Amino acid sequence: MKVTSTPGPRAADGAAADGGSAALLAARGLTVDFARHGRTTRVVDGVSFDVGAGEFVGIIGETGSGKSVSLRAALRMLPRNGTLAAGTSEFGGADLQALPARELRRLKGARIGFIPQQPWSALNPVVRLDRQFRQVGRAHGRSRAWTDRAALEMLERVEIADPRRVLAGHSGQLSGGMAQRVVIAMSLLLAPELVVADEPTTALDVTVQREILDLLSRICHEDGKSVLVVTHDLGVVSHYCDRVYVMRAGRVLEDGPVGEVFAAPRHEYTRSLVEAAGAGDLEDTDGSEGEAS
Ligand SMILES: Nc1ncnc2c1ncn2[C@@H]1O[C@H](COP(=O)(O)OP(=O)(O)OP(=O)(O)O)[C@@H](O)[C@H]1O
């Protein structure tokens, strides 16, 4: 994959300087409180980010820095004990925080695909996979025939061998990598414009991780989709993303084109991430046109 290093200003407030109102997903000032053991803790504080059309954006930071919570806040997917204390998020100009729940559900399945950390969390072990695809199709007004055809096509695109047999089976028969391919196929079923992936490969073996990411990136590039990926792996961001937001302790420390941020980090923390990752992970971030293997 090409890693671009678009020249341009680097924003200081966590929002992309070049994102502006044209962004497909725009989050501004997200601030999240969690109630825990009778106390309220602020875990995300004023986080802003943009994802433009066709852009691959990464959010990176150590465990607990607030990456997942920011992403979930933007998509109105916070757990019960989490509250959005401040901030806004828009998708294609629609206010995600104000949309009626039904419209939000419709938009999320059809225009925003979500890939979770654990494929198993998105699959029901006791329901045949073809039925699970049909449930997704039905929820969005698609016929059974349409869904069956689309599911087969998507499983082929994610390189599942013998997709008919897989569809007639259950998720428990799949390896982790196969299960994540099925989840990717399901999340892409309705051709969403944006794919949001929360540490999509941490549950998988290292070799499988790369295969899955290559596949996801290829399909999303071919179809011109936007991707927002949350990861603690600098190699993933440097290899697959155009722009990056670096998070620590619930805030965005810096953001910008991947090549620029990692080649000349402004923040000490980003510098330490780069140093810890070592040169091997940064082979593609020099602003030149590195190709993924
Ligand atoms: N449901 C919850 N209730 C209380 N606190 C939570 C909840 N979910 C997350 N947190 C807290 O919010 C903070 C940010 O968590 P978050 O999951 O966003 O981190 P992260 O950067 O995505 O890390 P990881 O890579 O481990 O997922 C952490 O301190 C976490 O303990």
From TrEMBL:
Family annotation (PANTHER family): ATPASE AAA-TYPE CORE DOMAIN-CONTAINING PROTEIN, OLIGOPEPTIDE TRANSPORT ATP-BINDING PROTEIN APPD
Main location per the UniProt record: membrane
SUPFAM superfamilies: P-loop containing nucleoside triphosphate hydrolases
Keyword Metal-binding carried by entry: no
Membrane topology recorded in Swiss-Prot or TrEMBL: Peripheral membrane protein
UniProt name for this protein: ABC transporter ATP-binding protein
Organism of derivation: Actinomadura rugatobispora
Similarity section: Belongs to the ABC transporter superfamily.
